[in-house]
Amino acid sequence: MATQFKDVHIQNVGFLGFEEADFAVFTIPGLEPRMDALRTQLRPKLEQLGEHFSNRLATQLERSVFVHVAKHARRKTNPPKDSWVAFSQDRRGYKKWPTFMLGMWSSHVFLQFGFIYESPYKAAFANLVLENLEMTRTLLPPDFLVYKDHMTPSGVALETLTDDAYEQLVARSASVKRGDLLFGREWSKAYVQSLSASALLDEFDETLQKLCRLYPLADLSLRRAESSVAATGSV
User: Fold this and answer.
1) Does residue 232 lie within any of the structural domains?
2) Residue 216 in domain
3) How confident is the model at residue 233 (pLDDT cuts 50, 70, 90)?
4) How far apart are CA 85 and CA 83, in angstroms?
5) How many domains does one find in the chain?
6) Can you give the C-alpha Rg of the chain in angstroms?
7) Sign of CA dihedral 54, 204, 69, 118
8) Which of 106, 136, 147, 226 is 20–30 Å from 188 (CA)?
9) Is 99 a residue whose pLDDT tops 70?
10) Source organism's superkingdom (predicted)?
11) Three-state secondary structure along the chain?
């Protein structure tokens, strides 16, 4: 079921790495000042990463991949605590679909794959993971994380979860409407700033390769959910 990455070279589109000022965006008080800094300081880098990795993902997944940089347009009072660029199969949006998200909090950078709670396919994906718990553990390195809520900073490392705890976490994602199910990796601010841009891109690329091993499972969940809808006439 694993997706194998092809050996394709994608040229860096100008990404120069992350610096202290990028992380500091999320410490600026007030919605408008933080949004202004986000637009000028961080969003251009997220756009560069989107261009860089969308081509890579499209080649490896053999399908169109579209870039969605978070705009935080619905925020009226509280400033965003994180931001990201998302990759999905739909030009119009990503929340419905299996999604890769590469982003940043004030403390770290993250790269995740899975479904957020707004997707009508999230429960189908979680149920497939439940059917393949042991396999998903073997597909990903033990230090990769599982997230039940993309709006909180950190997930739980697979290696720290017992089989029962892992099953309970995934089952919660299947049954709780506002629960997410994402897998990924994090890099601390200090570590990110210690790397060159090319070294950081290599780490992101390696992580994407491993997360893509879950894509066939996500794809199967779409087909299963759509078949269920066709059979019953409802989600």
Assistant:
1) no
2) yes
3) low
4) 7
5) 1
6) 18
7) positive
8) 136
9) yes
10) Bacteria
11) CCCCCCCCCCCCCCCCCCCHHHHHHHHCCCHHHHHHHHHHHHHHHHHHHHHHHHHHHHHHHCCCCEEEECCCCCCCCCCCCEEEEEEECCCCCCCCCCEEEEEEECCEEEEEEEECCCCCCHHHHHHHHHHCHHHHHHHCCCCCEEECCCCCCCCEEHHHCCHHHHHHHHHHHHHCCCCCEEEEEEEEHHHHHHCCHHHHHHHHHHHHHHHHHHHHHHHHHHHHHHHHHHHHCCC
CA neighbor of 140 nearest in space, from 159, 127, 122: 159
pTM, rounded to two decimals: 0.90
CATH at 61:
3.30.930.20
- Report residue 208 CA to chain centroid gap: 9
**Closest listed residue to residue 49, CA positions, set 231, 172, 156, 208:** 208
Q: Is residue 40 part of a domain?
A: yes
**Per-residue model confidence as pLDDT tens digits over 178-231:** 889 999 999 999 999 999 999 999 999 999 999 999 999 999 999 888 776 555
Question: Tokens 């290599």 identify what position?
Answer: 202
Structure confidence at residue 6 (pLDDT):
44
Residue 84: give the domain boundaries. Answer: 20-222
